[in-house]
Amino acid sequence: MVVGSQLENANPLIYRRSGDRQVTAREEDEDVPDGIDDREIFDLIRSINDPEHPLSLEELNVVEETRVKVNNGEGTVSVEFTPTIPHCSMATLIGLSIKVKLLRSLPERFKVDVHITPGTHTSEHAVNKQLADKERVAAALENSHLLEVVNQCLSARP
Amino acid sequence: MFIGGSRMKDSLTLLNRITAHPDSRCWFLAWNPTGTLLASCGGDKTIRIWGKEEDTWVCKTVLGEGHQRTVRKVAWSPCGNYLASASFDATTCIWMKKTDTFECITTLEGHENEVKSVAWAPSGNLLATCSRDKSVWVWEVDEEEEYECVSVLNSHTQDVKHVVWHPNQELLASASYDDSVKLYREEEDDWVCCATLEGHTSTVWSLAFDQSGERLASCSDDKTVRIWRQLGTEEGKGVSKDDLTWKCVCTLTGYHSRTVYDINWSRLTGSIATACGDDAVRVFEEDPGSDPMQPTFSLTAHMPRAHSQDVNCVAWHPKDAELLASCSDDGDIAFWRYQHSD
Question: Alpha-carbon distance B157 to A53, whole Å?
């Protein structure tokens, strides 16, 4: 979508999508408080589109349920994502898309931290620092071109 | 870490909470020098001026025309007649106070991208701005209210977050995403970086001088506060101006659970307030009789859910020693009464 003729990772490994969430009787009980759990966060981000391929972040194994950590009581969400290649120039954009999706979907009390899976990217520290800087994230999202690209990643595929 | 005990009991009480920038962030607050007006700014591109009426604070004016993007910080001139606003639209506006309103008299342009902070020198003749373009600009104001850039300082290697002037000297400090703090002064008609303060392990978000200007407090994404002291002032007058160095004499660690976005050092009482990404407001005081070269500070107030989201700014009132204002990503301003401990 953002890249023209040259694909950075022309032949990515494709992973199988997970099944739908099993809804339990307890969750359907309106009288029982139902906190947000790891699977719900994963469901919010797994179908985000990769900026380069017509595939979801789940299909590229960029996001995995085991790398999502929620603490409902403390209101914290931590997501690690794994770029498909260690030099991926889209890493910041992918992280930003995950962050924006969660900020838009979750109640405002949640603190959302998005990081690269340790050891999977050459500029891990720089990308993590950029994603953690809410002032730079706010400025980036005022950039209409970048916002459009993020929204493309977040839009449902036809 | 010492928390609790009688020293902290009920020392911060909420006086008022107002929705200042609805559906938006409130990024920063600034009291005018007499404390009659509070300026706020936010993600809704506006600046709002608040004044006290009876027991609450009301919006006197909305300055909505000056900027095309987020207004990140605001600063009053020492005379109180001008307000400067730094915006993500890469400009800084200078507003002149009229009887009931404000007029934008100048727009300072030149930064390549977002302006993050603005500050007036104590004389009112100099203004500093800083930007994501990694530079700090010093502007000179002449009698005709013309602003001229007299220096572009490129010492930082990353986004510059904050600028602040010494309380009574023409010494400027800046804080950056490059984890450092830098100090600048004029030397033979040019501004130069005269000190680099290294120690923080992540972005330095804000700075505050103490009343004397001999000490500087910095706060960071590394969740610590550091107190820096100018050496040479204490050890005697024999030290030349060029030999002044700044040393970290205290690190407050273990108190903040997320990024510390702002710090404010009361000129009236010496109390230090912090604004944190964990939604809390905290106040620290220097322990009586602590060694000036190795001072210790105690947490004297901790308001865990001061706001429903990140706290972005804390500002002590310039005249009322017990009054503290804070603002947040939730768009609110809160006013607190701080009972100074003995």
Answer: 35
Q: Which of helix, strand or coil describes residue B25? A: coil
Q: Would you say A108 and A138 are in contact if contact means Cβ atoms under 8 Å apart?
A: no
DSSP H helices in A5-158: 25-28, 38-45, 91-105, 124-132, 134-141, 144-154
State the nearest Cα–Cα gap between B213 and chain A, in angstroms. Answer: 28
ipTM reported for the complex, 2 dp: 0.93
Q: Residue for token digits 């409902």?
A: A72
Query: What's A62's DSSP letter?
Result: S
Name A145's Cβ contacts closer than 8 Å, sequence gap at least 6.
Answer: none
Give the separation between CA B171 and CA B73, rounded to whole angstroms: 20
Tell me if chain B has a CB within 8 Å of the CB of A138. yes
Percent of chain B with pLDDT strictly greater than 70? 93
CB contact under 8 A, B25 and A138: yes
Contact B43 A138 (CB under 8 A): yes
pLDDT 10s digit of each residue in chain A, 158 long? 444 557 788 888 888 888 777 777 777 777 777 788 888 999 999 999 999 899 999 999 999 999 999 999 999 999 999 999 999 999 999 999 999 999 999 999 999 999 999 999 999 999 999 999 999 999 999 999 999 999 999 997 65
How far is B139 from B136, CA to CA, in rounded Å? 10
Nearest-by-CA chain A residue for B278: A111
Residue B197 belongs to what H/E stretch?
strand B190-197
- Residue B177: phi and psi, rounded to 5, are -65, -15
A139:B203 CB<8 A: no
Q: Residue B129 and residue B164: Cα distance in Å, rounded?
A: 9
Listed in sequence order, the residues at least 6 apart from B107 whose beta carbon sits closer than 8 Å to its beta carbon are B66, B91, B92, B93, B94
Report d(CA B152, CA B155) in Å as an integer: 9
Backbone angles phi, psi at B17, to 5 degrees: -135, 125
Taking CB atoms and an 8 Å cutoff, what residues of chain B touch A142?
69-70, 88
> Which residue from A minimizes the CA distance to B131?
A136
